[in-house]
Amino acid sequence: MPDSVKTIVVVGSGTMGSGIAHVAALAGFKVRVTDEMPHILEKAKKSIEANLATGVEKGKVTKEQKTKALANLSFDSDLQAAADGADMAIEAIVEDIHDKQIVAELLERYLDTEVVIATNTSSLSIAEIGSMIVHPERVIGMHFFNPVHIMPLVEIITHPRSSDEALETTLAVTKAMGKEPIVVKDSPGFASSRLGIALGLEAMRMLEDGVASAEDIDKAMELGYRHPMGPLRLTDLVGLDVRLAIAESLKAATGSDRFAPPAILKQKVAAGELGKKSGQGFYTWT
Ligand code: NAI
After folding, report:
1. What domains appear along the chain, each with residue ranges and CATH number?
2. 10 Å Cβ neighbour count for 71?
3. What is the pLDDT of residue 18?
4. Is 118 a pocket residue for ligand 1 (Cβ < 6 Å)?
5. Nearest to residue 108, comparing CAs of 74, 127, 136?
6. Which long-range contacts (CB under 8 A, 24 or more apart) does 250-256 make?
7. Whole-prediction pTM value?
8. Whose alpha carbon is nearest atom 3 of ligand 1?
């Protein structure tokens, strides 16, 4: 654990915030979890407890680790109270630039000047999130993957004004959480979405061209390249609507036709075929 960070405030305790709080508490950080919705905080607490209990059942977490992790957590719907005295902030509120800018401003007001403000945005510009505050050098991207307690990667995103200290601290905290960091420049789609979407869209174009079936296109990557899951099955799990939105935002940000969503994707989304969650995508889910 880095000397400079003992207490982390996690802002937003939905899917990602609760997962981040879980791994941070398990790593030994004191974690203050906050959310503007008190009932979501309650839900986050239950989901962390349940995930830790599953970890114990599976032998991944000891009972002592679970007890310590739960003791490291506290929940408070008041942002100022939760942030008071924290050594790092990780923001995981809704994907809305305006809301994220406001939270960054509030955190700057409540935290000491040198405290890093990390954002878990999956697609917004880190520079833009930090553009309204006095010390944007303390703002950095810290992109976790879902489910956070299982996925090992954290994409750390720097922008032209982010400081070396902010990067060093974020790298140290990421490693202390047992995660594997990569460092990426603030650019549309960062590394993971840009590459993941490129592969997914090409697989869809191949399906449109009749190159092979969805199963065989996926198998090409699973068995030929050791991907744990092919790009079309993965799209079904993520949601075709989610991937369409990412493709459209990458197309707008880069101006490149590489990210233009193929007709098959648009048609499926228009028909309500959103993947696993709707029962039908590139595969039929029962
Ligand atoms: P979510 O909707 O599950 O949780 C967001 C939470 O933020 C909600 O509980 C909401 O009440 C709270 N919130 C909203 N405005 C707030 C404010 N001003 N102050 C305090 N709390 C506030 O969303 P999710 O999926 O956890 O996503 C959060 C962030 O993580 C987004 O930026 C998203 O793009 C990113 N992300 C999501 C991934 C995913 O698979 N769901 C993967 C990686 C990143």
Report:
1. 7-185 (3.40.50.720), 192-270 (1.10.1040.50)
2. 10
3. 97
4. no
5. 136
6. 250/188, 250/189, 250/193, 250/194, 250/197, 253/188, 253/189, 254/188
7. 0.92
8. 14
